[in-house]
Amino acid sequence: MDVDCIAFHPNCNYIATGGTDRTVRVWDTVSGNQIRIYRGHSTGVSAVRFSHDGLSLASGGDNGEVLLWNLSSDRLLSSYQGHAQMVTALDFSYGGEEDRPVLASGSMDGTVKLWDGSGRKEEEEAIKRSRDGGKGGRSDGERLGPIKSFWTRRTPIATLRFGASNVLFVAGTAEV
């Protein structure tokens, strides 16, 4: 198993890793034991990031997909599509509208996308579909789009981070 990305949990007791085996693994930093494994990516995992409250974990794939996991229930909250190339960076804001964090993702395609970082919007859509007999909301298999997208001309995104005041800092890299 190759490890291509790593992130520390906010309490530093756990780390998450992602790699070419298409899984996200959570490890106990004291014992070194694997305690969770998340499967859902169809390609290698290229980025991982815990939310600031430690309740969620985002993972990005080589195919541009971003998955949002609930660490308490061990279930996939949301699956986001929007990048045309590998996801290289992920970060969560510190709260937001209605206390919903924003999840930012950066990609080799030169885009930064902002997503619902709580996963609640996807759950609300599912409830809406069930109430109206599946006629409203999104159809099965359809993924939510980004809240907002930003493009560079041709510069792949190398990293991004939210500051404590929710200002998003982004850095690109020159094409080689």
Automatic annotation (TrEMBL):
Keywords: Repeat, WD repeat
WD repeats: 1-37, 38-79, 80-116
Region called Disordered, residue ranges: 115-145
GO cellular component terms attached to this protein's record: transcription factor TFIID complex
GO molecular function, one term: RNA polymerase II general transcription initiation factor activity
Composition bias, Basic and acidic residues: 118-145
Protein name: Uncharacterized protein
Organism, scientific name: Guillardia theta (strain CCMP2712) (Cryptophyte)
